[in-house]
Amino acid sequence: MRIPGPVSAVQIVVNRVDALPRRRAGSRRVAAVGVVALGLGLAATGCSSSGSSGSATSEVRITGCTRDAGNHRAVATGQVHNGTSKRSNYVIQLQVKANDSKIESGFASVLRVDSGARKSFTIRAVGADVPSGTTLSCTASHVGRTVSP
């Protein structure tokens, strides 16, 4: 199936999220908001990306990966260092693992990072509840970078 643009891709994911069982309505809304925000971020930044294999991944560092005691979800903190000569926008996809199994994922948009500058971010992942005492591992599974207008 050919998707003509990021808005269509967002709509497809939102429609699939809406199909989740009703008992997960809160998670469904959070997932839909995250997907829409990601899609709007990509549309606003021109939809180009250096991808995971480019230097953009090396410009992102995860500095913390903990369980939020209030909502039992993973929270990752990190920092972007713009090593390019131009102001850039970043979209970061996070993968959270517990005991080598992927349990959650999340996204962050870090906008208008000047050349040579560093900017911090926080990602509140969406997925399964994380039991107390679980050791978590957070990695940036994909980083997209575009030139900021």
Question: Strands, helices and their partners?
Answer:
Blueprint: H1 6-18, H2 25-44, E1 60-67, E2 74-81, E3 88-98, E4 101-113, E5 118-124, E6 126-127, E7 136-147
Antiparallel strand pairs: 1-2, 2-5, 3-4, 3-7, 4-6
Summarize the entry for a quick read.
The chain has two helices and seven strands.
Protein architecture, described:
There is one protein chain. The chain is α+β, with helices and mostly antiparallel strands and 149 residues long. The protein has two domains: 1-44; 48-147, Immunoglobulin-like. Helix content is 22%, strand content 41%. The chain has two helices and seven strands. It has helices at residues 6-18, 25-44; strands spanning 60-67, 74-81, 88-98, 101-113, 118-124, 126-127, 136-147. The chain has a four-stranded antiparallel β-sheet with strand order 6-4-3-7. A three-stranded antiparallel β-sheet has the order 1-2-5, with no helix packed on it. A hairpin with a 6-residue loop joins strand 1 and strand 2. Helix 1 runs antiparallel to helix 2 (25-44). The two termini are 31 Å apart. Mean pLDDT is 75; it is low at 1-25 and 27-53.
Characterize the largest beta sheet: strand count, sense, and whether it forms a barrel: 4 strands, antiparallel
Rg (C-alpha, Å): 16 Å
Euclidean distance between termini CA atoms: 31 Å
Number of strands: 7
Instruction: Find the CATH superfamily of the largest domain.
Output: Immunoglobulins
- CATH fold name of the largest domain: Immunoglobulin-like
Q: Kindly name the structural category.
A: alpha+beta
Kindly estimate the percentage of residues that lie in beta strands according to DSSP. 35-45%
